[in-house]
Automatic annotation (TrEMBL):
Stored Pfam families: Exo_endo_phos (PF03372)
Name recorded for this polypeptide: Nocturnin
PANTHER family: CARBON CATABOLITE REPRESSOR PROTEIN 4, NOCTURNIN
GO CC annotation: cytoplasm
Cofactor(s) this protein cannot do without: Mg(2+)
Keyword entries, A-Z: Biological rhythms, Cytoplasm, Hydrolase, Magnesium, Metal-binding
Biological processes, Gene Ontology terms: circadian rhythm; nucleobase-containing compound metabolic process
Region (Disordered): 43-70
Biased segments, Low complexity type: 44-54
Amino acid sequence: MLQLNPAVTRPGLEAPAHVLNDLSAHVFAPAVCPMGGGATRLYSSSSSSSSASPLPLPPPHLDPHQPPHPNLDPDFCKAVCSPDPAELLRQCEEALRGRPPRFHRKLVRLGDGGGAPSSPIRVMQWNILAQALGEGLDGFVRCPPEALSWSRRKYLILEELLTYRPAVACLQEVDHFPDTLQPVLSGLGYACHFCPKPWSPCLDVEGNNGPDGCALFFDRSRFELLDSANVRLSAMRIPTNQVAVVTTLRCRSSGRVVCVAVTHLKARSGWEWLRSAQGSDLLRHLQSLPPKTAADPDVPLIVCGDFNAVPTEEVYRRFAASPLRLDSAYKKLSSDGSSEPDYTTWKIRPTGECRSTLDYIWYSRDSLRVDAVLDLPTEEQIGPNRLPSFSYPSDHLSLVCDFSFKD
């Protein structure tokens, strides 16, 4: 089910007329899809459709029992055929034999939970780096081309997921959803939801695998799906190229309900006002959910995303000051509990080195407790060439938190 959420203008979000004209031209311009494969042709209609009509996006939930995507390569399919996560992790490590050691990160237990919960909700937030962007557009000048090959990165991505085994995984820049992530994670017991960007920059890369987008996976043995929606974010009443997936889940063991959203806001300097408008649009959507979900104070929210915004930006302040009473889980790593990490992404491009905090896990502080947070690798672990690398498949680090319901 696709839900289009129209934006409503608000004081402080207006942009100059020439900026709105630029945004309109950007939003309504058709995407260029040179030399695309089958997935590119599959999504080409959504890339050229008018924003005045509903987007022909795929349904948010795909049948976990459907046959593998025809483009799934036989070697990878054979290598990841085991339904046992431990065996699958061993197979990934075997396929990556000889690479530099992976980052050893520690799960930091927090003292505000009165002991570890018996069944925490582990949530992962991760921009995995779209394959077409990593190889074609992003320009990681210190990363060897071999480290960016999909034949290697798909094992590293799967290894990261299998190492931490989240109950809910919120991913951005997913452009290998139908042929890799959906069939493999479905086989591991995850329900899979995906919303592609209407005009993904991946489509501008020759030989791409289709558009990138946001994906949300949840463990079917842990949760029952109550509702799911793909949301196209708007700014100043204009639909933009950024999206979100919003799901409402019921815990099978406790019967408690939680609403989880994943998003990816506009990148680049100079678009701060647009990120603020997109964030406000998402907050309005979450506030407008029916009483049985996020509008009920007993139903907590978890919002994961690559916000492309440092903590001093307006969109961050809007989330922190929202009536939804959200807090950022990774502040728990700081000594005073009020500061974000020094970085969640660290890369070197032709324009220079970028070390920033852009990724967040927001949660309802009145209804949820943070029991543990995965720490971040040190500068020494990351290495002088930064990210991505032979050790790590993305320029963004995964964030992992354990949550429990407050009584």
